[in-house]
Amino acid sequence: MFKKGFFISMICALCLCACGFNETVERLIKKIDRTIESENILSKKTNETEAPKEIGQRPVSIQNSGGAALGETYQTLDISLLDAIAETERSQGYAPGLGLSESVFRENGGDLAGAVIAAYKDLAWAYSFNKFQNSASIQVTKKSIEDGIRKVKELYSKENKPDISEAKRIEALNAADAVIYFIREDYKKSAALLSGLFRNEEEPDAFSRWMLLVCEMEDGGADRSKQARYAAIQARYSGFPAYWHFGARNFSGALAADYAERCINIFPDGPYAAECRNVLAVFVGLNPSDGKIIFSRNEIKQIINDSIKDYDPEQLSPLIPLISLKDNPYTVFASGAMRELAADKKYKTWFEKQAVFAKKSYGENSFLASRLNYIARG
User: Fold this and answer.
1) pTM over 0.85, yes/no
2) pLDDT at residue 163, as a whole number
3) Predicted confidence band at 76 (pLDDT cuts at 50, 70, 90)?
4) Nearest to 77 by CA among 101, 100, 46
5) In degrees rounded to 5, what are phi and psi of residue 74?
6) Can you say whether residue 311 is alpha, beta or left, with left for phi > 0 and alpha for psi between -120 and 50 degrees?
7) How confident is the model at residue 33 (pLDDT cuts 50, 70, 90)?
8) Collapsing DSSP states into helix, strand and coil, what is residue 157?
């Protein structure tokens, strides 16, 4: 029989190959572990209907999961531990490891479906920040995540987990399937499964509720009510690229552009950045295909600052395609910022050489040649 929390370790190996725990999260997890030891939660087996022994503990009722099978026991789950994780996510932003801690607590408390969803939270984070997703050395892709979730389903089969109730098994398997459908972007099927997994104690900004809200927007559009609900949970997901990505592709106008920029600024090389650049391109009247040469304002500032720091005009080269586009806020912003550098002789000479090349390649009246002449004049 598998030890409780076993599948968490299995999924953790996949996640942590791509991202390390930051020190803040490590300290939090160690503190939580000490709290668990001091309260003797992990060492004491209790019936799922047993009242808490200590004042201040708020147990989770798991009776509606179908009760315990013969020989099946779970500790009382102290919600304050989950509250501590949630508050950390809201105040400091999400960080790797918090989902795994939450998953362990939920599984030990009998919330197997919640444990699966919480584990996926860490995997989703790893994928969001995995700029090496095509590297053979780091395999955090949608496929590898789905493979990991499928292993969870195997672990909760009757053969591997004969001691758990059928109701709990079904909940865990439904949660795993909801994640798989979410990864595949089959949002209708994912929503159908997620909607039946909520417990009364789940907060409005819980990860499972975020997933369901994304499914609702992807499948039925984002009206004002959904936009308001999505904005209301921002604090907990401010550092999570996927949160901004799904907002960008489901909202419109300036709001969509704002979400797109935030997604890009968090991780410019991430798997969601390209689509968000397309959102920016459309917002300023360009073709979606122009998104591949769009930079956010923060990126433009960073490129220019790095060039100044190293006193190297060549580092401005990535901005040349951007200023070749027709008038738009990002092109104008980059052109104005670079023009200030033309006061320096070295930069002025570089801009003049770029202008000559642009005239020969694209014509004297091309957008790029005209802008480079403008920039070189300082």
Assistant:
1) no
2) 83
3) low
4) 46
5) -140, 150
6) left
7) very low
8) coil
